[in-house]
Amino acid sequence: MHTLPGSSQFPTTRWTLVVAAGDPHRKEARSAIVSLCEDYWYPLYEFDGQQFDYVITVCDNARETCPVFFGKAEKLHRDFEDPAAVTGSEEQRLAVFRRVRDQLRAYLCDFSNGVA
């Protein structure tokens, strides 16, 4: 992982990988996605080899790219608006983050009540 000078906390973006990962027609796209996932979504790799009942993705981008879970888990998807993509004032963006947070909370509560 690349980090900012003097900091081990904040990884810098490796833009060549982002560009390669974003073009499915490039032969290196899959390896670029894997590399990005290892660097930026590393906690997911801690679960490699474990069995899950459900894997839930909450945005179309996550469903289409990374991560890929193999196994018998039931894969569920619900697309929520990406609050990070919203433009506007800080107040407007914060309102969207809070709305999506509340929608996620309601969705997960409904899901867990239906499973229990």
Radius of gyration: 17 Å
Structural category: mainly alpha
Helical run tally = 4
Helix content: 40-55%
Distance between the termini: 39 Å
Count all strands and give the number. Answer: 2
Q: Which strand order does the major sheet show?
A: 1-2
SSE pattern: HHEHEH
Let me know the average pLDDT. 75
Major sheet: size, sense and barrel closure? Answer: 2 strands, parallel
- Mass-distribution shape: flat
Which stretches are poorly predicted, pLDDT < 50 over at least 5 residues? Answer: 1-10
> What portion of residues belong to β-strands?
5-15%
Question: Short description, anyone?
Answer:
By secondary structure, this protein is mostly helical. It contains four helices and two strands. 43% of the residues lie in helices and 7% in strands.
List keywords for this structure.
two-stranded parallel sheet, 4 helices, 2 strands, disordered N terminus
